[in-house]
Amino acid sequence: MRKQYHFRQTERGLLSWDVDRLIALTKGFPRFQIPLSAIRELDEPFWFGLGNPPTCRAVAEHARLIEAADLKFPIILSSAGRVMDGMHRVGKAALLGRLAIEAVRFHDDPDPDFVGVHPDDLTYDEAPNHVPYVQPADCNKSRDDNFISKPNQRRGFVDPGSLIWL
């Protein structure tokens, strides 16, 4: 599985979280059902930004990833209730006509792994089954609610919802 990140644009610049770390941090969190109507990203261009237009090819790739998404894994929400991981699962739940989806939520958001680093400058090597985490030196908290997502190098997309939970 290719390395994945969650991105949020703020006045401080682009904040990036390693999705493997988000999963590890939330592993013991209580799960709950959140109504799909409470997930604002369903009505936002969540996967498109940073110069990535919603082309027909990109939409088709997301459709493929939505179809492959596994609903047995909870989505991850920020303390503000914004999706940090699992939008393809949210899309699948919506297509299946479900009214809610399982989620975990941060009480306090973790520090971002990177601040002001363009997605093209991050590493996207294949993720190992177990990823050790080393805290970067320059991490600060932010609670901005603007979210964007990162396409992979071939201008397709990797499903944050398809990660293997350990």
Write down how many β-strands occur, each being a DSSP E stretch of 2 or more residues.
8
Structural class: alpha+beta
Measured distance between first and last alpha carbons: 13 Å
Computed CA radius of gyration, to the nearest angstrom: 15 Å
3D shape: globular
CATH class of one domain, please? Alpha Beta
CATH topology of one domain: Conserved hypothetical protein from pyrococcus furiosus pfu- 392566-001, ParB domain
User: Mean pLDDT, rounded to whole units?
Assistant: 80
Strand content: 15-25%
- Sketch the topology as an H/E string, one letter per element: EEHEHEEHEEE
CATH architecture classification name of one domain: Alpha-Beta Complex
Largest sheet: 4 strands, antiparallel
Q: Given the structure, what is the number of helices?
A: 3
Q: Strand order of the main beta sheet, please?
A: 7-2-1-8
Low-confidence stretches: 130-166
Helix content bin: 10-25%
Concise structural overview:
The protein is of the alpha+beta class and 166 residues long. The chain has helices at 19-26, 56-68, 87-95; strands at residues 5-10, 13-18, 32-35, 75-77, 83-85, 100-105, 114-115, 147-148.
Task: Provide structural commentary.
With 166 residues, the chain is of the alpha+beta class. It has a domain at 29-113: Conserved hypothetical protein from pyrococcus furiosus pfu- 392566-001, ParB domain (Alpha-Beta Complex). The protein contains three helices and eight strands. β4 (75-77) and β5 (83-85) form a beta hairpin. α2 crosses α3. The two termini are 13 Å apart.
